Amino acid sequence: MNHPASRNPFTPDQIRSVAADVTEGWEERLRALVGIDCGTQNPAGVKRAGDIFAGWMADAGFQVTHLPIEGCAGLWVGRMRGSGQRRIGLLGHCDTVYPDGTAEARPMQRRGHRLVGPGVCDMKGGLLVGLYAVQVLRRLGWEDFGEIRLVVNSEEETGSFHTRNRMIELLSGMDAVYVLEAARANGDIVSARAGVIQLILTAHGRSAHAGVEPEKGANAVVELIDRLQWLRKRAADEETFRINIGTIQGGTQSNVVPDRAEAQVDIRLFHPDAVSRVEALVREVVSRPGISGVRMEADMKQWFPPMIRNTVIERLAALARECAASLGIPLRDTDTGGGSDANWIATQGVPCLDGLGPVGGLDHGPDEYIEPESVVPRTSLLALLMSCTPLANLRKAESDWPSGK
């Protein structure tokens, strides 16, 4: 079988050698990005980090545009033209989950074989791998593409509510999109992701004196707990989604019948039908009878739809494994319960893989890390994979794809 990777014009040694060359100084660049407070709630900080990265994109040969979008710091779009036909998308984000002050309190540092710091894994290291992979191909003189489009989002950590439509518009026509989130801690890339819904259930009751006139109250806390227990039992046998009751708040003090209670529920989606099933269940939990005088309210926001491993994604993952094997890199693809912007792109039918960044883990915590030794191999892998990406009109030709078996 004549697989795409076997037609690549560059040897693995060439790619590895150039990757080692172009990534020289990557740690200093990463330190500069990590040293900026750029939690999503700080759009000025996110804009600063994005503008710095945009400058590096321009230095690498991209035509860069910043797209302001109300409610966030917008999108940065780098476009590079070639002499071929294939259109390749790279996607990442420059926001983090950390509050202001974290960059100063926890600057990037080496701990043994790890680099630790806020955002090193999620996902500033991945942004650099994407940029360097393009530089590898340019250094090798590869121009067999119509366009490489690198999109950097400013609000992925909060669901991309303001940017998602424009992001989808920018990447829907690609032959493939490679998302630059970090690889799993064991090196796996990601070929399927859970979708994410945030559900807020609120019970509105009526306050009263718990000792003198309890009968005049309507206990919102009790009613909310009853509904959550019912919801948990109903969801226990579900295979298309999973719930986690994360927070419960309500009441003012022990001698007052509480007039309000609220719960936040995280829902992970594993099937295309999961959203409609969740919607039906939420309608049921709100409408079922309960304590007289208590009214239930549900606010359901979909952060990400599920990214389903379909046939095209399976073949793209097989191609990635083949490219990795030619470079001497062991590689598998896996699914994960976390969502990312890959979910939005894959839902549009675009062949999409995630986890193409460096190897890392412990995201969103004080020990978030990447493995520095993975930067050159992952840059090499992404460069080779980009150069082997088939055109959309070849995706129907079985002979142009690995079998995946």
UniProtKB/TrEMBL annotation:
Which segment of the chain is annotated as a signal peptide?
A: none
Q: Which InterPro entries match?
A: ArgE/DapE_CS, Bact_exopeptidase_dim_dom, Pept_M20_glutamate_carboxypep, Peptidase_M20, Peptidase_M20_dimer, Peptidase_M20A
Q: Where are the transmembrane segments?
A: none
Domain Peptidase M20 dimerisation, first and last residues per copy? 192-289
According to the lineage, what is the superkingdom?
A: Bacteria
Cofactors (names): Zn(2+)
SUPFAM superfamilies reported in the protein's UniProt record? Bacterial exopeptidase dimerisation domain, Zn-dependent exopeptidases
Matching entries from Gene3D superfamilies are given as: 3.30.70.360, Zn peptidases
The keyword Metal-binding is annotated on this UniProt entry: yes
Keywords per UniProt: Hydrolase, Metal-binding, Zinc
Q: What name goes with this protein?
A: M20 family metallopeptidase
